[in-house]
UniProtKB/TrEMBL annotation:
<feature type="domain" description="Peptidase M14">
    <location>
        <begin position="569"/>
        <end position="715"/>
    </location>
</feature>
<feature type="compositionally biased region" description="Acidic residues">
    <location>
        <begin position="136"/>
        <end position="166"/>
    </location>
</feature>
<keyword id="KW-0121">Carboxypeptidase</keyword>
<feature type="region of interest" description="Disordered">
    <location>
        <begin position="135"/>
        <end position="181"/>
    </location>
</feature>
<dbReference type="GO" id="GO:0004181">
    <property type="term" value="F:metallocarboxypeptidase activity"/>
</dbReference>
<keyword id="KW-0862">Zinc</keyword>
<dbReference type="InterPro" id="IPR000834">
    <property type="entry name" value="Peptidase_M14"/>
</dbReference>
<dbReference type="InterPro" id="IPR040626">
    <property type="entry name" value="Pepdidase_M14_N"/>
</dbReference>
<dbReference type="GO" id="GO:0005829">
    <property type="term" value="C:cytosol"/>
</dbReference>
<dbReference type="Pfam" id="PF25571">
    <property type="entry name" value="TPR_CCP1_N"/>
</dbReference>
<dbReference type="GO" id="GO:0006508">
    <property type="term" value="P:proteolysis"/>
</dbReference>
<dbReference type="Pfam" id="PF18027">
    <property type="entry name" value="Pepdidase_M14_N"/>
</dbReference>
<keyword id="KW-0645">Protease</keyword>
<keyword id="KW-0479">Metal-binding</keyword>
<dbReference type="Pfam" id="PF00246">
    <property type="entry name" value="Peptidase_M14"/>
</dbReference>
<protein>
    <recommendedName>
        <fullName>Peptidase M14 domain-containing protein</fullName>
    </recommendedName>
</protein>
<dbReference type="GO" id="GO:0008270">
    <property type="term" value="F:zinc ion binding"/>
</dbReference>
C-alpha cells in the first residue's frame, strides 16, 4: 500500500523533480533488484509493480531519464527481466518494465546524412529547401509521453468513428458545375469516341488476328495466336526501344488548356507505335513435351554466365565475366530456350522496349528480373500468418541489448544510395543489396550482426516524409539460414504486418525452375515504435516525429540465389504500358472499342495513359450512333499513391475483364463508356516514391469528376 501511495504522489511532476534531486532513482532501482531476487514465488508482484510505477513517473521528466541512465537503470531492468518475458504471472511487472525501457532509451536521429530524399528533382519555379539540421536532445519536448505495451494489439492512434448515418436530405446526387457550361465544352477533346464515324475501325486485310476463327481473349488467358513466333528484335525495333519517338502525341490536358474542343486523331495507335506486329516469338508457352528443366548451376556456368547478369538485366548491353557485351535481348533469348515460361498478358521483349522509354529521376539502367520475366499467381491462396504473441517484447529487448551490449554489433554499411562509391564486398559473408531499378526503394542497408540488417527506405522525392513502400534485391545468401531485416524508418503508427500480413519474395532460381511467383514469406513479424526521431527543424518546430520498425525474418530457398523483397506484389509503370499494348492486340475491334490515349505528360516526362473501353455500335446508322453517344460514362482511376501496388493488380484484372467475352462484361460495355486512368501517378510508381509538388493532379481529377457526373455530354 505504501509503494502504491508513493507511485500516486510521483505522478506530480514537482514531486518527481524532488525525487530526482534527492537521488531517489538509485534507491528505487536497488529496491527493485532486492524484491526481484527475494520474491522467487512471485507473491509480491503488485509491490514490485508499484515500485516500477514510481520509476515510470520519474522517467516522464528529462532529468529523471538522465538520472535513470546514469544509475545503470537500463542494464538493471534488462538483466532482471530478460529471462522471464514468457512468465504470465509477471505480466504486470513486465509491461511496466517495457514502458520504462522504451521511455528511457536515448532518442537518436536516423543513420542518414540527411532526412531529405536521396533523389532530387528540379521543379520549375520551386526553390530547393535547405537540408535539415542535426538532431539534438533539445528537439524533444519534455511532455511525459507514456508508452503502453499491449504487444502490438493496440493502435497508437485511435480515430473517432465517423461512420454515422448520413442525412439523405443533405446529400446532393448531382452537384452543379463550378464553371460555365460553355467552358466545359472544351473537354470534348477527351471524348473523341462521341464524334467518331467508326469507319477507320473496320478490319482491314492483313490484320494479325483472325477474329472470325480465334476465340476472343478473356480474363484467364490471351490466345497464343496473338503472338507470332519471334526470337529477337531487329535493328529498327531495337533502336525504337532505345529512343523516344520524335512525334509524341500531344496530351489531352494540353489540348483542353489550349481550348481545342475538336481534335482529330488518325487512329487508336499512330504509325510506328507498335514494332511487334510482325516480330517473331520463340514460343512463350509451357513445354508440351514434358522435358525436365536443366540444372540451373550448369546453365549459369555455361559460357561464363553469372546469375547476377541474369537477375538484374541492363536496359542496354550487359557484361559477363568474359567482358564481352551481351545485349539483354540475347539474355532473354538464351533464358527462354532453356527455361520456357508463359505469363498471361506479358512479353519480356515488349517489356524491355517499354523500359528503355521509361524516364526516372535517378536514370535507372537496370531492370528487376521479376518485372522483366513476369509473375504467375501462386498455385493456391496463402492464408494470413498466424499471429505470435511476444515478438514485439523480444524485439524491444534486443534493441536495448544493442544499446547496453554493443560489443557484438557490426554496424557496417553494406549499401547506400547516399554513398554511390561504396562497393559491396562480394568476398565477405554479408548480403548484397540493390534497388536502383524501376519502383525500387531501399536507401541504405547496415549489417548489425552476421544475419541481421537494419534497412532504411527512401522518402518522397524532394521531401523528408512518407516512407512505407520497399522493393529491393538481395543476394549472396545461404539457404536454410534465417536472416532478420529491420526497416527502421517507417512512419505509420500501426500496420497490417501486426495482424498477419507478410512481405512478398521472388526467387530468380525458383523462376528459372518454372515457378516465377511472388509469394508471401517471413516469420516473427512485428511493427512497433522505435527510438529514432526526426529533427524538430524538419517538422517546423514541433516535437520530433516518431519512427517505427518493421521487423521480419526470412529463410531463403537456395544458396547464392538472387531474391527480391517487396511490401506488396510490385506493379511497375512499364508493366502497365506493356499490358495495355498486349491487351489492345487481344480485343476484337469489331465488337470492343478500345482506345489508348495520353491524358498528359508527367513532370518526369512520362505519358499518363487514358484508356477508353465500350462496345462498338451495331452499325453506322444514326439510331445506333445516337444510342452509343447516350451511354453514361464511368470513370475508374487507380494508383494515385505509388505504394499501393495492389490497386494496379485490381486495375489489371478490371481491364482484362472489361474486354473479355464474359456476358457481364459484354453487358457493361453495351451500357457504359469506361474512361480509365490506370495509373494516376506514373512518376511516383517509377521512382518508388512520388515527386513532391505533383502539379495539375487536382485539375485532372476535377475534369474527370465533371465527366463522370454527366456534366459534359457533347453530343
Amino acid at each position: 500500500a505504501a509503494t502504491e501511495v508513493l507511485a500516486a504522489l510521483l505522478k506530480s511532476k514537482s514531486n518527481s523533480r524532488r525525487a530526482v534531486n534527492r537521488g531517489y532513482v538509485t534507491g528505487l532501482l536497488r529496491l527493485h533488484q532486492d524484491w526481484h531476487s527475494h520474491d522467487m514465488a512471485n507473491t509480491c508482484v503488485l509491490t514490485r509493480r508499484a515500485l516500477l510505477l514510481c520509476l515510470k513517473h520519474i522517467a516522464a521528466l528529462r532529468s529523471g531519464r538522465e538520472a535513470f541512465l546514469a544509475a545503470q537503470g537500463m542494464e538493471i531492468l534488462f538483466s532482471t527481466t530478460q529471462n522471464c518475458l514468457d512468465d504470465k504471472s509477471l505480466e504486470p511487472v513486465i509491461s511496466i518494465v517495457l514502458q520504462i525501457l522504451r521511455q528511457c532509451h536515448p532518442k537518436s536521429p536516423l543513420p542518414l546524412v540527411t532526412a531529405s530524399s536521396a533523389y532530387t528533382f528540379l521543379v520549375p519555379g520551386i526553390i530547393a529547401s535547405e537540408p535539415p539540421s542535426v538532431l539534438t536532445e533539445e528537439d524533444f519536448e519534455d511532455d511525459g509521453e507514456e508508452e503502453v505495451d499491449k504487444d502490438s494489439d493496440s493502435e497508437d492512434v485511435k480515430e473517432e468513428d465517423d461512420d454515422l448515418e448520413a442525412d439523405v436530405n443533405k446529400l446532393s446526387s448531382k452537384p452543379g458545375p463550378d464553371r460555365p457550361e460553355e467552358e466545359l465544352m472544351q473537354y470534348e477533346a477527351m471524348c473523341l469516341e462521341l464524334s467518331c464515324s467508326f469507319e477507320e475501325l473496320e478490319s482491314k486485310p492483313g490484320d494479325d488476328l483472325n477474329f472470325e476463327d480465334t476465340q476472343y481473349a478473356n480474363h484467364h488467358h490471351i490466345p497464343t495466336a496473338v503472338f507470332p513466333k519471334r526470337h529477337s528484335l531487329n535493328k529498327d525495333q531495337s533502336s525504337w526501344g532505345r529512343e523516344r519517338e520524335d512525334t509524341v502525341q500531344s496530351s489531352l490536358l494540353s489540348m483542353v488548356k489550349m481550348g481545342r474542343s475538336s481534335v482529330h486523331l488518325a487512329s487508336k495507335k499512330g504509325p510506328g507505335m507498335n514494332p511487334y506486329r510482325n516480330a517473331q516469338s520463340n514460343g512463350l508457352g509451357i513445354d508440351s513435351s514434358g522435358n525436365e528443366i536443366p540444372d540451373i548451376q550448369a546453365f549459369l556456368k555455361e559460357d561464363a554466365w553469372e546469375i547476377d547478369v541474369i537477375s538484374h538485366p541492363r536496359m542496354n548491353a550487359s557484361f559477363s565475366n568474359s567482358t564481352r557485351p551481351r545485349d539483354t535481348v540475347e539474355v532473354i533469348d538464351k533464358l527462354l530456350q532453356t527455361h520456357p515460361q508463359h505469363v498471361p498478358f506479358h512479353d519480356p521483349y515488349l517489356y524491355l522496349a517499354k523500359a528503355r522509354r521509361t524516364r526516372s529521376v535517378a536514370g535507372f539502367k537496370m531492370m528487376a528480373f521479376p518485372d522483366l520475366w513476369g509473375h504467375s499467381p501462386p498455385p493456391s491462396a496463402q492464408s494470413m500468418l498466424e499471429r505470435k504473441c511476444g515478438i514485439q517484447r523480444i524485439k524491444i529487448f534486443e534493441d536495448v541489448r544493442r544499446l547496453i551490449q554493443p560489443s557484438d554489433v557490426i554496424n557496417k554499411v553494406v549499401f547506400s544510395l547516399d554513398e554511390p562509391w561504396l562497393l559491396q564486398d562480394t568476398a565477405s559473408n554479408c548480403l548484397r543489396f540493390f534497388s536502383k531499378f524501376e519502383s525500387g526503394n531501399l536507401r541504405k542497408a547496415i549489417q548489425v550482426r552476421e544475419f541481421e540488417y537494419d534497412l532504411l527506405v527512401n522518402a518522397d522525392v524532394n521531401h523528408t516524409q512518407h516512407q512505407q513502400w520497399f522493393y529491393f534485391q538481395v543476394s549472396g545468401m545461404r539457404a536454410a539460414v534465417p536472416y532478420r531485416f529491420n526497416i527502421i524508418n517507417c512512419e505509420k503508427p500501426n500496420s497490417q504486418f501486426n495482424y498477419g500480413m507478410q512481405p512478398t519474395l521472388y526467387s530468380v532460381k525458383e523462376a528459372l525452375l518454372g515457378r516465377p511467383t511472388w509469394i508471401r514469406m517471413g516469420h516473427e513479424i512485428c511493427y512497433y515504435k522505435n527510438h529514432y526521431r526526426q529533427s524538430a527543424a524538419v517538422t517546423g518546430g514541433a516535437s520530433g516525429k516518431c519512427y517505427y520498425t518493421l521487423t521480419f525474418a526470412v529463410t531463403f530457398p537456395h544458396d547464392e540465389d538472387v531474391c527480391y523483397l517487396a511490401y506488396h506484389y510490385p506493379y511497375t509503370y512499364t508493366a502497365l504500358m506493356t499490358h495495355l499494348d498486349i491487351l489492345e492486340k487481344s480485343v476484337n475491334p469489331k465488337q470492343v472499342y478500345f482506345r489508348q490515349e495520353v491524358l498528359c505528360q508527367t513532370l518526369g516526362g512520362n505519358s499518363c495513359p487514358l484508356v477508353t473501353i465500350t462496345a462498338m455500335p451495331e452499325s453506322n446508322s444514326a439510331d445506333h450512333l445516337e444510342q452509343f453517344r447516350k451511354r453514361p460514362y464511368q470513370v475508374i482511376t487507380a494508383r494515385v499513391h505509388p505504394g499501393e501496388s495492389n490497386a494496379s493488380w485490381v486495375m489489371k484484372g478490371t481491364l482484362e475483364f472489361l474486354v473479355s467475352s464474359d456476358p457481364v462484361a459484354r453487358l457493361l460495355r453495351e451500357n457504359f463508356i469506361f474512361k480509365i486512368i490506370p495509373m494516376l501517378n506514373p512518376d511516383g510508381v517509377i521512382n518508388g516514391k512520388k515527386i513532391k509538388i505533383f502539379l495539375d493532379m487536382e485539375q485532372r481529377l476535377d475534369i474527370w469528376m465533371e465527366i463522370s457526373l454527366g456534366l459534359v455530354l457533347p453530343c
